[in-house]
């Protein structure tokens, strides 16, 4: 398999093989979060999906992942159980999947497993099974009861906070459960008090939080953003949290967005969904076996992720032939010209591709969060660089980003 492809100018671009699979094992959810890109934005293709991934799709997914690993000399592969709400599949499904994966892949390829859950269905029995199967887990929670329950509600409109908090208490009750906890995924609500949210997460005894920008496009802007204005509500919300987290200097508590930005400022090649334009190395497998790019693209328009590939009839690497996949698989080469000229592009990476979308220009726009990312990254760079000894700053030729941004 070729490790490079040609861009529009004919130049070769490196692409990374797929090492992670986001498995949409359940296409339904017991919650109805108001901002969810699967159910409540522009795409309704979930209605045509099987509720649960079939045994045939499970076996074919694992086999096609093995084929891709062998073709690319990969010795590890990651399976991330996702949904909808993945716990709706039941315990036997996860047991069968992990057993099959180890049977098909080992000893040549070592699989790892994680699950992203809303936490409302977690019980002691579930946690014991996840521990037995060596599956780590992340839980979604947006903050205090009032803030979380503004958006994360069930189909009767009832909030989910207290059910999630009960699950967190169960996890904290047993060191074996706690060690498998990856952290909290939290969608930012700019109408909340950022320091109150941060301190609430700290009070829960967590090791990590992943603060996410709401999925949005130029056609459907995020709450509080004027795409034609100059306001920066998300930077203004995040900066107080960064300042408190940075001052605490607690290496046992990870705010992933900030750590990725700091790493990218100093030349790291690790990116996350909201920052960095390093080529991605994951694929999504839907309940019907569809091989798809990032599900966040569903925020753009109906059917955008349906690229005509399926594990029952296609190999994984065929996804690289799909134009929309280049937004992620060769991300640093698919940016708008305005982004390529920006002094912070190596850090923000143009932002998440769906955030650049408009029906008028496609993906040829700066992110709807462009001003927010600019302000946040400049602030973080100034804070971090200010802590470095002068000889280090001189040796690394570190100039304040604010000067470059103003000059540009």
Proportion of β residues? 5-15%
In angstroms, what separates the terminal alpha carbons? 41 Å
What is the global morphology? globular
Main β-sheet: number of strands, strand sense, barrel status? 9 strands, mixed
Question: Number of DSSP helices?
Answer: 15
E-strand count: 11
How would you sum up this structure in a few lines?
The protein has 408 residues and is α/β, with parallel strands linked by helices. It has helices at 55-71, 91-105, 124-132, 145-151, 161-172, 175-178, 194-203, 233-248, 256-265, 326-329, 337-340, 345-348, 370-386, 390-396, 401-407; strands at residues 4-6, 12-14, 20-24, 76-82, 110-117, 135-140, 181-187, 208-212, 254-255, 282-285, 291-292.
Describe the structure in your own words.
It is a single chain. The two termini are 41 Å apart. It is globular and about 55 Å long. It contains 15 helices and 11 strands. It is 35% helix and 13% strand. The longest helix is centred in the first third of the chain and has 17 residues, at 55-71. The protein has 408 residues and is an alpha/beta fold.
Which helices and strands, and how do they pair?
Elements: E1 4-6, E2 12-14, E3 20-24, H1 55-71, E4 76-82, H2 91-105, E5 110-117, H3 124-132, E6 135-140, H4 145-151, H5 161-172, H6 175-178, E7 181-187, H7 194-203, E8 208-212, H8 233-248, E9 254-255, H9 256-265, E10 282-285, E11 291-292, H10 326-329, H11 337-340, H12 345-348, H13 370-386, H14 390-396, H15 401-407
Parallel strand pairs: 3-4, 3-10, 4-5, 5-6, 6-7, 7-8, 8-9
Antiparallel strand pairs: 1-2, 10-11
């Amino acid at each position: 398999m070729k490790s490079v492809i040609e861009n529009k100018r004919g130049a070769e671009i490196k692409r990374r093989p797929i090492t992670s699979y986001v498995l949409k094992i359940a296409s339904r959810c017991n919650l109805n979060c108001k901002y969810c890109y699967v159910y409540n934005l522009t795409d309704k293709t979930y209605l045509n999906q099987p509720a649960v991934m079939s045994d045939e799709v499970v076996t074919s997914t694992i086999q096609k992942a093995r084929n891709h690993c062998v073709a690319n000399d990969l010795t590890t592969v990651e399976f991330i159980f996702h949904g909808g709400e993945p716990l709706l599949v039941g315990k036997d499904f996860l047991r069968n999947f992990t057993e099959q994966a180890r049977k098909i892949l080992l000893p040549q390829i070592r699989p790892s497993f994680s699950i992203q859950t809303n936490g409302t269905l977690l019980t002691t029995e579930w946690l014991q099974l996840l521990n037995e199967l060596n599956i780590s887990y992340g839980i979604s929670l947006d903050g205090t009861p009032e803030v979380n329950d503004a958006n994360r509600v069930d189909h009767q409109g009832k909030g989910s906070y207290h059910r999630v908090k009960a699950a967190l208490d169960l996890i904290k009750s047993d060191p074996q459960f706690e060690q498998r906890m990856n952290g909290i995924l939290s969608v930012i609500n700019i109408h909340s008090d950022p320091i109150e949210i941060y301190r609430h997460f700290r009070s829960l005894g967590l090791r990590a939080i992943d603060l996410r920008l709401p999925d949005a496009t130029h056609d459907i802007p995020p709450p509080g953003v004027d795409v034609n204005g100059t306001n920066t509500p998300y930077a203004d919300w995040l900066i107080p949290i960064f300042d408190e987290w940075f001052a605490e200097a607690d290496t046992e508590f990870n705010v992933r967005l900030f750590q990725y930005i700091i790493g990218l400022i100093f030349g790291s090649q690790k990116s996350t969904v909201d920052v960095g334009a390093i080529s991605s190395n994951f694929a999504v497998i839907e309940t019907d076996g569809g091989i798809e790019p990032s599900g966040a693209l569903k925020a753009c328009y109906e059917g955008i992720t349906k690229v005509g590939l399926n594990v029952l009839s296609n190999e994984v690497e065929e996804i690289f032939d799909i134009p929309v996949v280049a937004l992620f698989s060769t991300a640093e080469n698919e940016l708008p010209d305005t982004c390529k000229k920006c002094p912070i592009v190596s850090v923000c990476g143009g932002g998440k591709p769906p955030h650049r979308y408009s029906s008028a220009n496609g993906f040829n726009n700066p992110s709807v969060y462009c001003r927010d990312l600019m302000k946040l990254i400049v602030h973080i760079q100034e804070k971090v660089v200010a802590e470095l000894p002068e000889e280090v700053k001189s040796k690394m030729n570190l100039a304040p980003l604010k000067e470059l941004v103003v000059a540009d």
